[in-house]
Amino acid sequence: MSADSRRTLAGTAVRGVLWSAAAKWSTQIVTWGSTIVVAKLLDKEDFGVMAMSVVFLGIVSIFVDLGIASTAVTLRELSRGQLRQLNSVSGVLGIAGALVAAVSAPLLVLLFDEPRLRGTITVLGITIFLGGLRTVPTACLRRELDWRRLATIESISGVAGAITSIALAWAGFGYWSLVLNQVVISIVSLIALPRRAFIGYEIPDRTSLAPALLFTRRALTGQLSWYVYSNSDFFVAGKRLGVVALGAYSFAWTLVTLPLEKVAQVVNSVLPSIFAAIRGDIDRARRVLYAATELTALVVFPMTVGLAMVAPDLIRVLFGTKWIEAVAPMQALCVYGAVRSIAPALNNALLANHQERLTMWFSIMFAAVFPAAFWWASAYGAMGIALTWSILYPLFLLLQIYLASRTGVIELWPYLRSVVPGTVSVLLMTAILVLWQRSGPDLSGWSAIAADIAVGVVAYTATVIVLFRSSVERILAILKSAKSPPST
């Protein structure tokens, strides 16, 4: 790869990160605002009904996607005709998925003993159908590295969904405000796609799609296993603890993962296309991965720990005492949230280097262990389930990192060093914040939240600047390079 090509790719990557960041942060502000309003208007039971609905529909959505999205982005050698064939497969699967949702709704009513699931699952089936129509067109934009368009679509759909949920919750629609929020987001995301992204359809040919289908099958196995283990906590909580406890747990989960995923995805949503573009240049791919991991850790780690530290006052002030049950699981989940934020970048690097078997088998192992662990931990309530995440997940991720280093995709110690700045800085921040909370003035409400945030920000920023100045300078240099347009 020439120096000009590398500069062009670097500029494209940075612009992708910045456009994604702008979209996700603007959407996050609106989403957080809507979450606060909706949480005040709805009850834990409403969130529990929605969580039960999403558990099943997520599995159907994975079968509908069939790994097509990741295949279309990663396998850049696919022709336009092959993409049209994948588009046909995706459309048919979308229709089938919506029908499966409608037919399965009565069975899920019996499984959870919750009659409201009949209507919610049937209506949410619309999102599966629309997702099938949207999969390949969206993948085409990612292949083109059109981050600006993707960012715009995400912002518009997120704002539309937030307005819908607030309006319906205010009008007294209860859990339907959460359901129709997802429907509106799906509709707007499809309508907002540019015409060029709709590449048309062709009758699928098995021979022509053979390479794509092999990749798709492995990606599907990994995605399905991932979904089983990552959502089995909701299933166990709903089955063992009931809809109200599930509502509190799912609300805590939303508060922890909603802002953190947005930040992590700023980098991770860009990486698959970048890794695909530099496939074969392992040294450059490693540098991209290490930089993305370091940046994610520096941004996300303090957010997760800070959220845990202010959780009691934050929940009480923003959402009211009815959500106080969400505090303990929210604090327990923050460790998991921090560690999880760096995992997608590693998985993207493994997939781009044809190590999908490793990610697939790891997901299968997770799916075999976590559901049983959640079932056992549910005897200790929602807190037990949350602690299971924060204890087991870091151990499994360390094992995955070690095995990834054996494949040659990463070097073990350079990769681990990429999380040192964020880890050390957040540990020092935590120590200072704990000392402040125990020996500082006796504050409450907004004053306590503001003081804790101020102390945490100052402590963390000072630590990063004093101990890890080179990391800050490297990130600033990357941001500065984004001002220059790519060479043509």
UniProtKB/TrEMBL annotation:
Keywords: Cell membrane, Membrane, Transmembrane, Transmembrane helix. It comes from the Bacteria. One of its GO terms (cellular component) is plasma membrane. Pfam families: Polysacc_synt_3. Its main location: membrane. InterPro entries: Poly_Biosynth_Transport. This is Lipopolysaccharide biosynthesis protein.
